Model the fold of this input.
Amino acid sequence: MSYAEVYRRSLTDPEGFWGEAAQAIDWDKPWDKVLDASAPPLYRWFRGGRLNTCYNCVDRHVEGGRADQAALIYDSPVTGTQRTLTFSQLRDEVATFAGALANVGVTKGDRVIIYMPMVPEAVIAMLACARIGAIHSVVFGGFSSKELATRIDDAKPRVMVAGSCGIETNRVVLYKPLLDDAIDLAAHKPERCIVLQRPQEPGTLVEGRDISWAEAVQNATPHACVSVEATDPLYILYTSGTTGIPKGVVRDNGGHAVALHWSMKHVYNVEPGEVFWAASDVGWVVGHSYIVYAPLLQGCTTLLYEGKPVGTPDPGAFWRVIAEHGVSVMFTAPTAFRAIKREDPGATHLKRYDLSRFRALYLAGERCDPDTLNWAETNLGVPVIDHWWQTETGWAIAANCLGIEALPVKPGSPTVPVPGYDVQILDDNAKEAKPGEIGRIMIRLPLPPGTLPTLWQKDDRYIASYLSAVEGYYLTGDAGFKDEDGYVFIMSRIDDIINVAGHRLSTGGMEEVLASHPNVAECAVIGVADQLKGELPLGLVVLKAGVDRAHEVIRKELVNLVREKIGPVAAFKLVVIVDRLPKTRSGKILRGTMKAIADGTEYKMPATIDDPAILGEVEQVLQSIGYAHHA
Ligand code: COA
Ligand code: AMP
Done:
């Protein structure tokens, strides 16, 4: 069937379409209804069905003939170690850790926060939660203790699972003190912490509360898979919203297993038994979906890489991993390729490796600039597929689905809507925009299986944030257009979210931190264009009257404050002090105009601007740090 036929069927007969896809999953009890549409705008998939996601990822492959196939390959250039777990070894380790969780009181529906680096135990902990029906919430290691505390207070975990440290190219990051600080800061107190003591830097355990991973598994007996409802939550993943309060995206069990399994063949064209590599982090949605769940559901070998594209040790690291482990399809963010291209523009390192088994590269997480796409395509000689998705959807909204039909690539576009997603561009009057006309990108409800059913314990916030802009539609938060061929182009966000090295960050959250500094009267944070990371946050700060401390000192304090309150991942290093901020007559700060000035792009003088002279002042200050120069 052609893409057009598959796509049409997914929208005209969603129940038939997804009901068929669901046959590929092992159910303990079949569903009563494929799509429960009884309470719009909330929809639920596979209501009444029962299954276990861990069983589908691990046990059924052991029983089905893949017991000795590698399930997970851990490749860690930062520690100089590699480890392979077969499906049967993975099953045993997951079952034992599930027993360890049960020993510390975790039962179905309890939350477990996982704060770990890229080690196999992170995957084992996630699957162990799934095995007993507990709800995991993985927090990325680059977030601060304050961000971790916010998540502890929202998810209210019974137990925390943490690594003692993470390893960055330039330093060892001590996770254990961050964990302790977070628990001190949080109002909710988890009962127990299980700490993986890494040899590089073991942590100090708090007596009565903490136990080591080794001790926890020593006393544990393997736990069986617990049958859960298709609609029960599998995990919560927090993502940046427009304020400092992150959104707890919920993923269910049934729809998630069906959609992710379907995506492996149809979107990525990967067969069971092949090696699939998502070079991301388990703390992000890409890590959840394409390091852990989807490849394992499909019976693939998944790769867990603890390293960077460059510097561990050189820009040939990705090619080494692909060659050494026989990777057939890889997924990463464009920023990783920009980093490689910058250090090795001629791709000389590529010549050292045999990439004959490599078939396709998928990029997502941020806009893929045509230069990077062309560089990757020319040097790798395989299809390079830009695809568009978000934490909320959990899998691709637009892609070139190589497993259905390879469509011609148009650089700058993630191609066409994926089956299941009715993507529409709506103008300010909620009318469908004409081809080429930019508007808000919306998805007509219901969203397909695997996408968020709600925000954790906040149906109201889910409806207010995503489902209220236009009745019957989900608001993606992205703006863009479709061309005459129906190709989607993603142009920008309509909110204050920026994308730094493929990481999603809220400028509003950073402004809250800057505003908390005692010398700051008001501030704005904008995302400025960056050749490596796509965007970088830049803070503009007005000091309170009478503050006469050295600006250099205040700037350093502000940089440190964001690092401490949000984390190093914010990559907040640019801050300037200005006399005034440009505003509209009603007092709204003109962030978009300042961004255009900083990037040196054309802009229209806003009709409602209060004092145009301020723009000139801001431009001068930005020029002094190397921005605001016309291309
Ligand atoms: N734990 C603790 N700190 C972390 C961390 C973690 N898990 N991950 C990143 N950090 C730190 C980094 O060390 C860096 O700190 P620094 O300011 O002291 O240098 C800071 O957070 C910013 O990290 P990052 O934006 O990743 O920058 P980088 O310079 O370390 O690396 C790239 C740049 C492009 C190589 C890297 O971002 C990359 O590989 N990105 C692509 C893949 C990806 O992760 N995509 C995500 C979604 S698909
Ligand atoms: P996250 O939730 O962290 O995955 O970030 C999702 C956001 O990243 C989207 O809403 C987009 O703004 C951006 N994004 C992801 N993939 C792409 C892509 N292929 N092209 C353009 N923007 C993208």
Notes: The mean pLDDT is 97. The CA atoms of residues 102 and 132 lie 8 Å apart. The domain at 497-624 is CATH 3.30.300.30 (GMP Synthetase; Chain A, domain 3).
